[in-house]
Specification:
Shape: globular
Radius of gyration: 24 Å
Number of domains: 3
Structural class: alpha+beta
Strand content: 15-25%
Distance between the termini: 70 Å
Oligomer: single chain
Strand order of the largest sheet: 2-1-5-4-3-6-7
Largest sheet: 7 strands, antiparallel
Length: 568
């Protein structure tokens, strides 16, 4: 049909608006702090083929996972998909979900008898069983240690909750009410999206809406291919490292990418990356493709549609049995550290294509979990995502104390943590000198320190960059390493690696967690005096570092600092 471009644009904007409304709804109805406060959840609308047509990105890898979820639903149920159904799945291999701690919910949208779309979401779950509270042990050795695995199953069948599935969910979680509350919120959010799609079809007609689904993907593909065609042809390579896999602690893991660009085609070859890991760093190919989508959007235009049209352009190559194409049942729960390393490698390699958009190393990602029993004997799971720092970018300093790249979540407020869990936050601050020195300074890392108030608990960390520092670029220095210490400065002080599971804690213990800082870009000697002085006055760079790392004249700096103190 002939599609009016104005109507098509209105519908495309409306699709984005529907997804934003879904996002707001899922956060407001979330039972867990990980959904309600950290906002570790994404909503997406897909067409009947499972291609993305409506998105408002929260966590970019969810865009790569949910099309695989829809294809897995078709494989499992064929034509036995009905109005009122709601499917759930958390299986990384069967369904392509990010890791088994994430639960995908999808409902089919029918207009009459025709299946036209799916309204979907993925949201992190506080606990789905497994060997440690919070499910994601940093030293799991197989998928079966990472909680119960749900292939695509119906949570609701034609509008009715499947009682047996709900019972299995409840029986396999340390926090069943929280889990079921979050899943019901996801279902309700999808129903909201379904209602809004019906309203849109009623206004514009089904034929026009479906034509718009196809048109927006075609336009994205054409635009991306046109941009790629303007880049120089060639081969560009880069690599990144992760500390270890959580089991073999002395063995860094390599992520290598080779980009082959010819005409309007681009291939990302990851076949030279490390073998699959014994620990849970493995990540499935659909998610690696999502890293490539992210990098392309970052390099082309932040407003570029991350839909099925972009997915058509990206060509990838993997080696079976590698960390980026693991063989079942290799564990996957700390996949985000791998995904971030992949993205950093891709962005470095793309510097050869777009040299004016350089970025230094990031401060790492990953969640912290403290789980155990309160004084009254009830179970709790305190799951937190704590921000790290961006590396410096061309012309700009790195951003401090935030989640980076694909891990686009928020840090839970202190007030919420202390209200809901048996913990007291002693400190929450930026770490002086943690950003890599450079003409453009790396972002500063965040530090949190806790008093443990539970009688007994277990600590799990799925972090990174405790031994492999965030890299500097073009003469910039590396970011400061992260640390995790129990009872710092005391006789029983215990320093822990970047990923582990089930370390015991007791009432009165102190936990210190620092993320890594971002890398610097350009020679520190080229940092303008005014900006360096401002850093020192703000407590971002110490006096000593300003002299030793940036080459500041100590007398001049001391005089300027004293003058400022005298005025204040």
């Amino acid at each position: 049909m002939s599609l009016d471009p104005i109507t098509a644009q209105v519908i495309q904007n409306r699709l984005s608006g529907i997804v934003q409304e879904m996002q707001t709804n899922i956060f407001r109805t979330g039972y867990s702090t990980i959904v309600r406060e950290s906002q570790d959840a994404s909503c997406i609308i897909l067409d009947a083929n499972g291609d993305v047509v409506g998105e408002h990105v929260i966590l970019p890898l969810h865009i790569a996972a949910l099309p695989e979820v829809i294809r897995a639903i078709y494989t499992a149920y064929g034509d036995k998909i009905y109005p009122g159904d709601a499917f759930i799945t958390n299986h990384p291999y069967i369904s392509g979900v990010t890791h088994s701690i994430d639960m995908a919910v999808a409902i089919p949208v029918f207009v009459g008898d025709q299946l036209v779309a799916f309204c979907t979401s993925i949201a992190h779950k506080s606990d789905l069983g497994g060997m440690v509270p919070g499910t994601g042990s940093g030293n799991a050795r197989e998928l079966f240690q990472e909680g119960i695995q749900y292939p695509p199953v119906k949570f609701m069948d034609r509008g009715q909750v499947v009682a047996e599935v709900e019972a299995i969910l409840r029986a396999n979680s340390r926090t069943p009410d929280v889990i079921l509350g979050d899943i019901r919120g996801q279902v309700g959010t999808a129903r909201l999206g379904e209602e809004r799609l019906h309203e849109m079809v009623a206004r514009y007609g089904l034929e026009t809406v479906l034509a718009t689904f196809a048109d927006l993907q075609d336009k994205t593909e054409r635009r991306v291919r046109k941009v790629i065609a303007g880049w120089k042809d060639g081969i560009f390579e880069a690599q990144a490292w992760v500390d270890n896999d959580g089991v073999l602690l002395d063995r860094p893991i390599l992520y290598h990418v080779r980009i082959e660009k010819t005409g309007d085609r681009i291939l990302f070859d990851f076949s030279q990356s490390a073998d699959q890991t014994l620990g849970p760093l493995n990540v499935r190919p659909p998610l690696v493709r999502g890293c490539c989508y992210y990098a392309m959007v970052a390099m082309i235009d932040p407003e570029l549609g991350n839909n099925g049209g972009l997915a058509r352009v990206i060509e990838t190559r993997f080696r079976r049995g590698s960390v980026l194409d693991p063989v079942f049942p290799a564990p996957t729960n700390t996949y985000m550290a791998s995904a971030t390393a992949v993205t950093e490698a891709v962005l470095q390699a793309m510097n050869g294509l777009i040299p004016e958009k350089k970025v230094a190393g990031m401060g790492g990602v990953g969640g912290m979990v403290i789980g155990g029993q309160r004084q009254d004997g009830s179970s709790y799971v305190q799951y937190e995502l704590i921000g790290a720092a961006y590396g410096a970018r061309t012309g700009k300093d790195g951003v401090s104390g935030v989640s980076v790249l694909l891990d686009n979540a928020k840090t839970a407020p202190i007030e919420v943590v202390e209200t809901e869990f048996p913990a007291r936050v002693r400190r929450f601050e930026l770490v002086c000198d943690s950003g890599g020195p450079g003409e453009f300074r790396g972002g500063l890392a965040a530090r949190r320190e806790y008093d443990i108030l539970a009688p007994r608990a277990q600590l799990t960390l799925r972090g990174g960059k405790h031994t492999q520092p965030p890299f500097g670029a073009d003469g910039g220095g590396p970011g400061r390493l992260g640390v995790c210490i129990i009872n710092p400065g005391q006789e029983d002080e215990q320093s822990l690696p970047s990923r582990f599971g089930g370390v015991p804690l007791k009432n009165g213990d102190v936990l210190l967690l620092e993320k890594a800082g971002g890398g610097g870009l350009g020679s520190p000697k080229d940092r303008p005096w005014e900006r360096l002085l401002e850093d020192v006055l703000d407590g971002y760079v110490s006096f000593e570092s300003a002299v030793s790392d940036y080459g500041a004249d100590s007398d001049k700096l001391r005089e300027a600092v004293d003058e400022w103190k005298g005025r204040s």
